[in-house]
Amino acid sequence: SLAEKLGCFASQSLHFRPQKLFIQRSGILAHEEDMLLQLAFLKGFFQKTHDVSYVNALQIAQNAGLGISSHVVSKHESYKTVLSFKLHDDSHSLTIGGGILGGIDQRITLFNDFRFEMEAFGNIIVLVNQDIPGIIGNIGTALGNQNVNIARFDLSRNTKGGKAMALIGLDEPISPQVVETLRQQTGVLLINSVHL
């Protein structure tokens, strides 16, 4: 499910231990049982670190000290269904959101303050960089030099000359060595590899 994929994406992108999870939903899922969405997200979130199922996902969250709340919001203009999940502690937060386009096409539409239209599957590089010329070309060249093919690419920025963020879909997973090569590129602030 979309919620499970967003949980999996979030768990591979976190650099802190969250204390709270806040869920927002609209569209078709606004009328779904709230517990089902919670369980799906938690199953995805804990699948890399626990033997998790829909049966024990909530207990694992409680054992981890994760408090959960949710809210229904008004209808979204572009998607029939929109979900967002915010994980935070006292000084850090991570927000990830997604939508279902046309009833079947699952997309990652939000990562913190950046908006996307990335299909939610496969191998994805999460890249945050300074918004300066040449970085995207350098990343593409570095991947090509490692014989890694880019399948999908979605770039977002908030302000000109500030920070930009890209979600880069790849045909195959990349090694930690390739991630480190990308991290050394000028202007790269953060890079992470995610598999859905």
Describe the protein's topology.
Blueprint: H1 2-11, E1 20-27, H2 34-46, H3 57-63, E2 67-72, E3 81-88, E4 93-101, E5 105-111, E6 114-119, E7 123-130, H4 135-145, E8 150-157, E9 163-170, H5 176-183, E10 188-195
Parallel strand pairs: 1-2
Antiparallel strand pairs: 1-3, 3-4, 4-5, 5-6, 7-9, 7-10, 8-9
Walk me through the structure.
The longest helix is centred in the N-terminal third of the chain and has 13 residues. A 6-stranded mixed beta sheet has the order 2-1-3-4-5-6, with helices on one face. It is 25% helix and 39% strand. The N and C termini lie close together (11 Å). The chain contains 5 helices and 10 strands; from the N terminus they run H-E-H-H-E-E-E-E-E-E-H-E-E-H-E. Helix 1 packs parallel to helix 2 and helix 2 crosses helix 3. With 196 residues, it is an alpha+beta fold. The model has no long low-confidence stretch (mean pLDDT 90). Strand 4 and strand 5 form a beta hairpin.
Shape: globular
Strand content: 35-45%
N- and C-termini, Cα separation = 11 Å
Q: What is the helix content? A: 25-40%
Rg, rounded, reads 17 Å
Average pLDDT for all residues: 90
Low-confidence stretches: none
Give the assembly state of these chains: single chain
Task: Tally the beta strands.
Answer: 10
Strand arrangement in the largest pleated sheet:
2-1-3-4-5-6
Write the element-wise H/E pattern from the N-terminal end onward.
HEHHEEEEEEHEEHE
| Alpha-beta content class | alpha+beta
Number of H- or I-type helical stretches? 5
Reported for the largest beta sheet, the result is: 6 strands, mixed
